[in-house]
Amino acid sequence: MSDHDHASPETKVVHAGAARYEHLPVVPPIYQVSTFAFKNAAHGAALFAGDKPGYIYSRMGNPTVEALETAMAELEGGYRGLACGSGMAAIHTTLVTLLQSGDHIICSEAVYGPTCTLVETYLPRFGIEQTIVDTSSLDEVEAAFKPNTRVVFIETPGNPTLAIADMEAICKMAHERGALVVVDNTFMSPICQQPMKWGVDVVVHSLTKFLNGHADVVGGVIVPKEQKHYTQMRKALNHLGGVLPPFEAFLVHRGLKTLALRMERHHENAMKVAQWLESRSEVEWVRYPMLKSHPQYELACKQMSCGGGIVSFELKGGLEAGRGMMDSVKLCTLAVSLGGVETLIQHPASMTHASMGREARVRAKITDGLVRVSVGIENVDEIIADLEQALQKATAHIPKPQPKLQKSGT
Ligand code: LCS
Q1: What is the pLDDT of residues 303-329, one digit of tens each?
Q2: Which ligand 1 atom is nearest residue 89's CA?
Q3: 94 Cβ closer than 6 Å to some ligand 1 atom
Q4: pLDDT of 345-361, one tens digit each?
Q5: Which of these, 213, 219, 221, 223, lies nearest to 258 by C-alpha position?
Q6: Which CATH number fits domain 9-256: 3.40.109.10, 3.10.450.50, 3.40.640.10, 1.20.1560.10?
Q7: Is 156 in the pocket of ligand 1 (CB under 6 A)?
Q8: Which H or E run contains 7?
Q9: Looking at the domain that runs over 259-394, which CATH code has it been given?
């Protein structure tokens, strides 16, 4: 229990993980060290045996990294956090810990490309079976269970289609069958969605995105709910080695303090961008969880407290028009990644989701013309003005239909 267990998320992001001792720094200092001196041989042996608390070697634990891990556990409501060298290291460490040869995993079809590649290409090499389904369909999830299903891995909302999975219903199904549910909460952050409230067993994040928020760190984190999973994962992370260095941990912890403020602005701006796109006749479709036109709008309102910063859409001119728009932006940056303060635009089929292959993209409904925007915290009128000039340039040669009426409300 910490002093902030009952505080609001806005308070927690500022104070979580901060040690409060007299005459010590207000924020955790950077312990830029690989190894820690023992008082004597007996002390070293006791630390290794786990008989005494203390630091040994930074792959096994480091005070700066631990402060971030504590903060993340407080924010997600889990037992403790495990900071990893990337979001992919967090996902890989989690799956390798929870699964073994002969087990089966069910995974969302709309996930970050390399997550799909890990589940479909690497896990089978080690005798782990997989079924990829549309986790926004409970019937598909239910039909995918096998007697050896041990893990259901969900990304909700999914990257980049923003398909939403019902975490409460899936946890019920999985737990009845002895399986665990792991949720990648990267798109939402604990400010917008707290998966453990719905029964989720393990939350993973790419720290690279909203949690750090400043496009200057690659990192990941695992937060298990149960102590026994934490203990298994700590051993696995130490043995597999994908840990987060102290300087990166310091930067992410620093970024975390403004997370609640940033998420508020990301949401406000993304909602306006999504509504503007929906009003444009050149746009074929738009996805944003808090648009009423989203197929799981009601579920989004139930399990998410805000819509986050990601908007996906397709132009009427398909891939060619989308490319033209990406090449014409001036304020927005053509780059992958997401969740930073700056607005980024990218093309999943040829960039973030290229590794999963066309067949898997078609199954996940990632069309060739889909364009993804990570809406930043800049002045929203200026973001929209930039997208508008790029849209006009990209679609100048396409005959204009009559302007559409705006479809969505809040
Ligand atoms: N989970 C999600 C939902 C992600 O979007 C990403 C990266 C990862 C995990 C992996 O995290 P990393 O190892 O990069 O820290 N998503 C990216 C994207 O959409 N563009 O570039 C990276």
Answers
A1: 999 999 999 999 998 889 999 999 999
A2: 13
A3: no
A4: 999 988 999 888 889 89
A5: 213
A6: 3.40.640.10
A7: no
A8: none
A9: 3.90.1150.10
